[in-house]
Design brief:
Length: 464
């Protein structure tokens, strides 16, 4: 069974192998090697026997091919309603064939499955809401990705992403030293403007432990500073862990379940070590899904819950506004029309739509809903890893059209997007279609309009 230097059945476990794979720019050699990668049929059959249990087999069997899931899929809608983009067809023609043939499929078929699994589904699971039999297509596509990953059939960027988690316990090469240095840097950088500002590391028994997306310390350290300032304004007793601070999981997008387990366990270990009363996660949808919704099951927790109450940033922010820990200056509310992007992973899959609208009620004078909205909203077009796979950039850009049209229909030029993948997709949407919009997380908006308590204001120089 020939395996390539880069494209093979072995996950990335060392920094040396990770850097080597990164050196294959764009995955040119990787994808060429994939064309010759053999399918280990006995191993795939054994995996199916062990993991493909009654639930998935029943879903594959009871699908009525009724087509009710078709219009629910934004990818079907932007592809001129191509029948091959109907969710039921996509899963039956990939996972269904693998299961029916007990893993006895060809290299060409597996590469076809890669294209379908990563460029024709974002695992947003909107289709599952409309299935009369309650079939969870997101779960089945995630399972398909896991089968493909186990055989080495996974997009180049996704193998890199899961390797990052295995090597650095983060989706990017941010070491523990890098992370702690960034915390100190941001506290110093903003400390002159905000008296007493701290980013406490490894503080035990705090009220809040805060976790992040690695892209923040790597590329947007000001996001960490903004979170710290808002905790400071609210008077919170909080901390970040030196290890276990990264709550995202590109491994989930890759289908690398072993890396998913490893990643979430680093977060849970930090919770158990520092004993916070609760944990607040950053403005990221899939990070919330990975640590709060899926994570307990990857970690084998029988109660299906993290070790401490774990909430999304929008939940903390709504609470802070509701209780008056953070107060909004009415004169600084958003005056222009503004709309809100509903993240699939914490709106559709965790029911937080009322929370985000409560926040908008405090900060916006002319809030306009997209249509549809809340749990019925369409995926931004970049979830499930779609944003980051260069091979499928054309397909991803086509997928952005649904969100483009939703935004245009509101008449708004400002879009609040409290999720990293949504933020990225809407940024790229503007770059691709130039419709004249702006996009933002919540933290910078709140900072611009929050009333600063007197004891946190800079004291004027006595000579002035």
């Amino acid at each position: 069974m020939p395996e390539g230097t880069f494209c093979n059945k072995q996950p990335i476990n060392t920094e040396e192998d990770l850097k080597s794979l990164l050196g294959d720019k764009g995955g040119a050699q990787y994808y060429e090697e994939m064309k010759h990668l053999d399918v280990d049929v006995p191993a795939l059959a054994a995996t199916l026997e062990k993991t493909c249990k009654a639930r998935i087999r029943t879903w594959l069997e009871i699908c009525a091919h009724c087509g009710m899931c078709a219009d629910s899929c934004f990818l079907y809608r932007v592809s001129e309603r191509d029948p091959k983009q109907v969710p039921a067809y996509k899963i039956q023609s990939t996972l269904g064939v693998i299961v029916k043939n007990k893993g006895n499929v060809s290299n060409e078929f597996m590469r076809h499955c890669v294209d379908v699994a990563w460029s024709q589904c974002t695992c947003c699971n909107r289709c599952g809401m409309y299935c009369p039999h309650g079939i969870d297509m997101g779960v089945m596509f995630s399972y398909l990705r896991g089968l493909l990953f186990s055989q080495g059939f996974v997009p180049w960027e996704m193998k890199i992403g899961s390797g990052m988690h295995r090597v650095y316990n983060a989706q990017m090469d941010v070491t523990e030293e890098d992370w702690v240095d960034t915390c100190e840097w941001m506290a110093d950088e903003y400390g002159e403007e905000w008296p007493g500002l701290e980013i406490p590391v490894d503080k035990e028994d705090a009220d809040i432990m805060y976790t992040l997306n690695a892209r923040e310390p790597k590329h947007y350290p000001e996001d960490l500073a903004e979170a710290a300032i808002l905790f400071h304004i609210a008077g919170e007793n909080w901390t970040v862990p030196s290890t276990g601070w990264e709550q995202t999981s590109l491994a989930m997008f890759a289908g690398d379940w072993a890396a998913c387990k490893k990643q979430v366990e680093t977060v849970y270990s930090a919770i158990e070590r520092l004993r916070p009363k609760r944990v607040v996660g950053t403005e990221c949808g899939h990070a919330h899904r990975a640590t709060v919704i899926e994570g307990p099951y990857w970690a084998g927790r029988e109660d299906g819950l993290p070790p401490a109450p774990y909430i999304h940033y929008v939940e903390w922010l709504a609470e802070a506004l509701r209780t008056g820990k953070i107060k909004i200056d009415p004169s600084k509310k958003i005056k222009e029309p503004v709309t809100l992007q509903d993240s699939c992973n914490y709106i559709r899959n965790h029911g937080l739509s009322n929370i985000t609208r409560e926040i908008m009620s405090y900060i916006a004078e002319d809030f306009r809903e997209m249509a549809p909205n809340r749990e019925h909203n369409y995926c931004c077009g970049g979830g499930g890893g779609f944003n980051g796979i260069g091979k499928y950039r054309h397909q991803r850009n086509e997928a952005l059209k649904t969100k483009r049209d939703q935004i245009l229909d509101t008449g708004c030029k400002l879009v609040v997007a409290p999720c990293h993948n949504c933020w990225d997709a809407i940024r790229d949407l503007e770059e691709e279609f130039e419709i004249g919009i702006r996009w933002t997380f919540l933290k910078p908006l709140i900072l611009k309009m929050a009333i600063i308590p007197d004891h946190l204001k800079l004291q004027e120089d006595e000579d002035e």
